[in-house]
Amino acid sequence: MNRRLALTAAASLSALLGATAASANDYPTHPIEIVVPFGAGGGTDALARAFADNARKHLAQPFVVNNKPGASGVIGWSDVVNSKPDGYKLALMTVELTILPHLGLSKFGVEEFVPIARMNADPAAITVKSDAPWNTVEEFIAAAKKANGETKVGNSGNGSIWHLAAASVEDKTGVKFSHIPYQGAAPAVLSLLGGHIDAVAVSPAEVAPHLASGKLKMLAVMADQRLKAFDKVPTLKERGIDVSIGAWRGLGAPKNTPKEIVDVLKVAAAKTMAEPQMREAMDKLALGYAYGDDVAFRATMARDNDGFKALIPKLNLKP
Q1: For residues 67 and 52, what is the distance between their CA atoms, to the nearest angstrom?
Q2: Domain 123-239, what architecture?
Q3: pTM for this entry
Q4: Which of 24, 69, 217, 269 gives 117 a disulfide partner, CB atoms 3.0 to 4.6 angstroms apart?
Q5: What is the dihedral of CA 235, 239, 241, 242, to 10 degrees?
Q6: pLDDT tens per residue, range 117-134
Q7: What is the DSSP string of 74-126?
């Protein structure tokens, strides 16, 4: 009897493993969802859609982008974390995953995801309306000091990288801002265009169209060197403010996704990111190309997780 039970259990296990292998070998059999945890129109959304468009020739099924904004990205990422790890629901991961847990705004972090590929990296930048009275970052900081905390700076949500960017400027200059959170960078930029806030501390990619149209002007970038696409804009370091901070974005799957499925996604991601059209799309969007495989992506996440764990208490940020 025991032998019969053992054989039955072994057969069941073999069938289960066989089904899993077959499932992995057939993957994908239907469209794959990429959850973007921020609103449509921002840099993260634009990157996801460019990737989905250029990945069509490298995978049997298409990627479908789904925006699920809210709570600085936690709502969208929670959806992925709690999904079945079968390769059909992926996350557009951003640097905020290494920030939010240390602010107590998320119960999970990068450890809940399997890295597939890092796609891009962008510095923060201080941008204001073109008719604003400040033409240099020094003038902006001086005015903000006089305003004594009333200068409104928009970001993509409490605990977002752009929130930390503005807070880092506060830390280095002694100025105080009124931080205004939005459900992504795009609505923050729209609010700036509407005159509801004084500045944003988002990436150049997220303001590039409005810079080109003359509606906005960029006062400084938070990078080690000037950006090729904005070579007339100084860095904060050039102006004596030692702040270099920015975002990265990449693709990830829920923890425990089978290795065979992750391998398929890694190959497709590498081929997609190597497409000249993908590079062109990112250049047009002013998104910094920074492809890295899963190993490089994991190292980036570990570095920033440790870095922000140390920085956040120093900035004394409160949710």
Answers
A1: 13
A2: 3-Layer(aba) Sandwich (3.40)
A3: 0.79
A4: 269
A5: 60
A6: 999 999 999 999 999 999
A7: HHHHHHHHTS-SSSSEEEEEEGGGGTHHHHTS-S--GGGEEEEEEEEEEE-EE
